[in-house]
Amino acid sequence: IEELTRQSEDENGRFRNLLERCNLTTEEIDAIVHRHLREVSEQIECRECGNCCKVFRPQLAPQDIVRLAGHLGIPKEEFSAEYIVEYEAGKGLFFKCVPCPFLRDNACTVYPGRPDVCRAYPTLYKKGFVQNLGITFSNCSVCPIVYNVYDRVKMEIRAGTATWHAH
């Protein structure tokens, strides 16, 4: 997926610029994205991939640490000492290592207790696809779901379902 994204980088960049000038409303674009997300998600099992867990180091909220420690049945202090590092006081808590210490055979071993940021990934279901293009575009090289949704949206809109504002 990383190589495919690299090969289509220029094309995706041009599409990104065009999408920002598309005559479709943000709600219409979001509806297209959500439709493709449902279709792609039915074909790709997110929990069998693990790419995001191999490359990202998620920022953890205090409730994530409590939830993960509880899931593992250990005190949060023990969990923090074993798995967490703080970057510059107040800048955030993160797992000490990448890949995620709870990734085994491309699967999350703490799935029911996973952090909120992991629960939200890849965030395509949220509103504001156009406003989040930078994140989405960078996630294309990591997540097969994001790559395929982005590619489908690109094909659909380029196929003539929208016109472009001239600049």
Structure characterization notes:
Helices cover 53% and strands 7% of the residues. It is mainly α and 167 residues long. It has a 3-stranded antiparallel β-sheet with strand order 1-3-2. Strands 4-5 form a two-stranded antiparallel sheet. It is elongated, with a radius of gyration of 18 Å.
Task: Detail the topology: elements first, then pairings.
Layout: H1 2-7, H2 9-19, H3 26-43, H4 51-55, E1 59-60, H5 62-72, H6 76-83, E2 84-86, E3 93-95, E4 103-104, E5 107-108, H7 116-120, H8 133-139, H9 144-161
Antiparallel strand pairs: 1-3, 2-3, 4-5
Helix pairs in contact: 3-9, 5-6
Protein traits:
167 residues, mainly alpha, three-stranded antiparallel β-sheet, two-stranded antiparallel sheet, 5 strands, disordered C terminus
The rounded distance between the terminal residues' Cα atoms is: 33 Å
| Alpha-beta content class | mainly alpha
Helix content: 40-55%
Biggest sheet, in brief?
3 strands, antiparallel
What topology, given as strand order, has the largest sheet?
Answer: 1-3-2
Radius of gyration: 18 Å
Care to count the β-strands? 5
Order of helices and strands: HHHHEHHEEEEHHH
- Tally of alpha and pi helices: 9
| Molecular shape | elongated
Mean pLDDT: 88
In the predicted model, the low-confidence regions spanning at least 5 consecutive residues are: 161-167
Strand content: 5-15%
